[in-house]
What we know:
Among the domains are: 89-122; 146-241, putative rabgap domain of human tbc1 domain family member 14 like domains (Helicase, Ruva Protein, domain 3, Orthogonal Bundle); 251-390, Ypt/Rab-GAP domain of gyp1p, domain 3 (Cyclin A, domain 1). Helices cover 58% and strands 0% of the residues. The protein has helices at residues 23-26, 88-103, 105-111, 113-122, 129-137, 139-144, 151-157, 162-171, 180-183, 187-204, 214-224, 227-241, 251-267, 269-277, 283-291, 300-313, 316-329, 332-336, 341-349, 353-356, 358-367, 372-390. It is globular and about 55 Å long. The two termini are 41 Å apart. The model is unreliable at 1-30 and 43-65 (pLDDT under 50).
Amino acid sequence: xxxxxxxxxxxxxxxxxxxxxxxxxxxxxxxxxxxxxxxxxxxxxxxxxxxxxxxxxxxxxxxxxxxxxxxxxxxxxxxxxxxxxxxxxxxxxxxxxxxxxxxxxxxxxxxxxxxxxxxxxxxxxxxxxxxxxxxxxxxxxxxxxxxxxxxxxxxxxxxxxxxxxxxxxxxxxxxxxxxxxxxxxxxxxxxxxxxxxxxxxxxxxxxxxxxxxxxxxxxxxxxxxxxxxxxxxxxxxxxxxxxxxxxxxxxxxxxxxxxxxxxxxxxxxxxxxxxxxxxxxxxxxxxxxxxxxxxxxxxxxxxxxxxxxxxxxxxxxxxxxxxxxxxxxxxxxxxxxxxxxxxxxxxxxxxxxxxxxxxxxxxxxxxxxxxxxxxxxxxxxxxxxxxxxxx
Length: 391
């Protein structure tokens, strides 16, 4: 376990409340910075985070699945590996521990965050994943707030700019067409819910609008929870975890690309030199990784494990995953066979299968020798560099 990555502390729902106003009250686009000022996503301990553990998920659509993740059998396009088999007794014990935590959520997050973090790193039981994600990101708090009781429904029925509607409709059939919810028995229902979630987000944030990379994120959420819950999780992800990623100019993702490249120099100097020598800019290979939170790049069991940690620890998880992928996809013998940037980018666009598997990737992510202090230091360095360039 990497020392210093995720210290014991506060909850992971920073900034939900500002001057007593909530999203449902604001009803419009707030002015938002181009990129975050810190990589942390935790909140002050005095924030009222009252939350219930009852599901309360109305208007849900439940579909039977054809395999563990809901993808159709015989699929050759979706990256699904052979996940580790967990003993039933172990799984039941984990479920019991999570039920206990969910029953006293605020107390655990404020007083025993380290235990929550460690259990997220071990993987959240599939039966409780939706409830856990909702609590971890603060979406439950938003859903339960009286001012937001009808917010999602109102947003779904409000007028949205034609350009966003047209773009969303074009992308509906492109998102996980081999999943039963979007291309199988429930295709119409799944695509309609995906449309509603994305449209509601555009109405809430009319300036930022819709970005194509938001669709797979919303789709993944819908695979695990009802539409209203998926909407509030999407709002949390876009506003608090990866702010500015989908804004015009995408300066936030460029900044995080520079941070990733700076951290790579510490983790794997050889790979860093190789990419720098060939002029491979981080934006050329990490954009889809970060914008889609790896949902388009890795086997599904790995994706879910990454999301479990991401909801608890924030964007730092994405950096760690990216660093592991870079380190092991371009070892010395592979770099020798990449004389130009084209061969290098081909490797990074089609990652070696063995390094993407859950049983390899997750342990490597957890033991990577990069601390939170290293990440914050590099973040401050890149921010200062940008300020000098803009001066």
